[in-house]
Amino acid sequence: MTKPLRIAVFASGSGSNFQALVDAAKAGKLDVTIGLLVCDKPAAAVVGRAQAAGVPVHTFRPKDYPSREAYEQELLERLREERIELVVLAGYMRIITSVLVEAYWGRMINIHPSLLPSFPGLHAVRQALDHGVKVTGVTVHYVDGGLDSGPIIAQRALAIAPDDTEASLEEKIHRIEHELYPDVVQGIAEGRIRFADNRVIIQPKDGIAQ
Ligand code: GRF
Fold first, then answer.
1. Does 103 fall in a domain?
2. In-domain check, residue 86
3. Does 111 sit in the ligand 1 pocket, CB within 6 Å?
4. Is-catalytic flag, 174?
5. What does each C-alpha distance from 22 to 10, 16, 18, 174, 184 come to in angstroms?
6. How many whole angstroms from 96 Cα to the centroid of ligand 1?
7. 31 with 59: CB under 8 angstroms?
């Protein structure tokens, strides 16, 4: 790993998590270079955020390619050109195939708005509300070939209030995400969080258990 760690962020929508990473890096709390934003929706708000932050952008339209593997092969070449060491999925709404999973095994992470393995997939916040669970949260995990199923790195729990709506709960979850994701990426940049011997290894910060 180089210092600062070179990361790419993949996002499809608003990009508030992308922004949290940019802001943390600017504030000196995150020792990484965001070398690339990858976005499958050229009109998404996250593209404007990247341009404003001076982060190079790679957009593409999946329907211009014969298969997922075909656009991922192109993405892989770009990631290699940019010497990307860690891929950070932040609201990237596409299935990842073995092309990227194998190339970035143990070096690709995702954030999901539930306490996995509960409520994987789309609309996780709504799923939790519909199910009537009293506690939900946020999970950061390494990416494997399944749907939100890879090895878990970190989780934060959150109590659901009786009057919570999908919007209010989403807002609370976003606030947690915007702290947790930069923290995890910083842990990886410092070498405290790693994936080795097929398991997640986490060394406490400053020798203090978290
Ligand atoms: C986040 O809630 C994240 O957990 C999920 O997609 C959402 C992206 O939000 N994977 P944003 O685009 O970062 O605002």
1. yes
2. yes
3. yes
4. no
5. 13, 10, 6, 15, 14
6. 16
7. no
Domain membership flag for residue 210? no
Q: What pLDDT, on the 0 to 100 scale, is given for residue 207?
A: 63
In a domain, 207, yes or no: no
Q: Is the CB of 19 under 6 A from ligand 1?
A: no
C-beta of 148 in contact with ligand 1 (< 6 A): no
User: Which range marks the domain in which residue 198 is found?
Assistant: 5-202
**For position 205, what pLDDT does the model report?**
82
- Over residues 93-113, the pLDDT tens digits come to 999 999 999 999 999 999 999
Residues of the chain with pLDDT under 70: 1-2, 207-210
Single out the residue of 168, 173, 129 nearest to residue 155, CA to CA.
173
Overall number of domains in the chain: 1
Among left, alpha and beta (phi > 0; psi -120 to 50; other), residue 3 is: beta
Query: pTM of the prediction?
Result: 0.96
Which CATH number belongs to the domain containing residue 54 in this structure? 3.40.50.170
Between the CA of 15 and the centroid of ligand 1 the distance, in Å, is 7
| Predicted pLDDT of residue 206 | 73
